[in-house]
Amino acid sequence: MKILHVISSVNPKDGGPIEGIKQDFKYSNHHKIDMEILCSDNKDSPWLKDRRLPKVHALGPKILGYAFNLKLVNWLDINIKKYDAIIVHGLWQYHNYAVWVMARKHNVPYYVYSHGMLDPWFKENYPIKDIKKKIYWWLIQGRILKDAKSVIFTANEERKLARKSYHPYNVKEKVIGYGINGNPYKLRSIDKLFFKKFPLLKNKRIILYFGRIQEKKGLDLLINAFHKTYRKNSSLHLVVVGPHEHTFYQKILTLVTKLKLEKYITFTGPLYNKLKWSAYKSCEVFACHHIKKILVSRLLKHFLSVSLYLLLIRSIFIKTLRNLKQVL
Fold first, then answer.
1. Domain assignment of residue 121, yes or no
2. Would 7 be classed as within a structural domain?
3. Among 175, 202, 233, where does a domain finish?
4. Which helix (H) or strand (E) holds 161?
């Protein structure tokens, strides 16, 4: 079986979707599945050198946030029949449209992973963008999802929330957990790597936040809760790992300064491979993004593989402070 994953970019800074593809690829040969990726990255993009990637067809550059790229349509027109199925990752960008047009033309089934992009949170927090999305939904996006073999959600809660997003909502829904592995390294090999990189954090009781620094993730809730807790234990330290969106990152830095937490919070930027897992191993508590109760059970295996507590950050019921006190 031959599958083509179509995604705007394979840049790991864009979040979890590409990591899931990499981990799927690791096991694809065992199931006699041949995987490839089509994206709009430039051919010389450094992240394309990642050995965990399958074969990548990089047809960049793309134009603006919509990632417009006519090369996708032309390439798919020539090659789409070589694949048994197409899996599209994400919504609202040109690669959706390109697959839709060529899959219908050549009668090739395609599936769409929404990756949380139908969460009504966006409607509530970005009403002007929502107007544009409503128009795009009526013209194109709704039709793309209607014609898909399935629209895939990673949890039942995500599926239920998607129904509240845009109308008409004619979608063939499927819930499939986005598989992820636990720690692939021997614990001894990662034990002290994090503290070698960040020696000032040694002997601290680390609360670890791991993810993109963006508004939806609830990092501001965690920082406010941490502010009410750290005074009771001076060894507590919040470590924030991940790439950032510039505007919200500046808001977070302003909040840290306002609360006088500069000495108690460290921003490391993205961490990968052994250093990432060493960060997990070095922390006492992992703070997990948990918007509107969307939590996939696969995360438990991911975190238990390095034996740590899981702290949930919620945007509706703010229980972060209570959870912190119970654990610490």
1. yes
2. yes
3. 175
4. helix 156-162
Percent of the chain exceeding pLDDT 70 equals 87
Rounded CA-CA distance 91/114 in Å is 6
Q: Provide the mean pLDDT of the chain.
A: 85
Q: At residue 217, what is the residue type?
A: K
Q: Answer whether residue 314 is part of any domain.
A: yes
Residues spanned by the domain of 20: 2-175
Output the six-digit token pair for 43.
């051919």
- Asked if residue 121 lies in contact with residue 292, where contact means CB atoms within 8 angstroms, the answer is yes
pLDDT reading at 308 higher than 80: no
Q: What is the mean pLDDT of residues 277-288?
A: 85
CATH number at residue 323: 3.40.50.2000
The continuous run of DSSP H or E covering 167 comes out as none
What does the block give as tokens for 182?
């636990």
pLDDT of residue 312: 52
Same domain, 167 and 197: no
Joined tokens for residue 224: 């406010």
Confidence of residue 291 (pLDDT cuts 50, 70, 90): very low
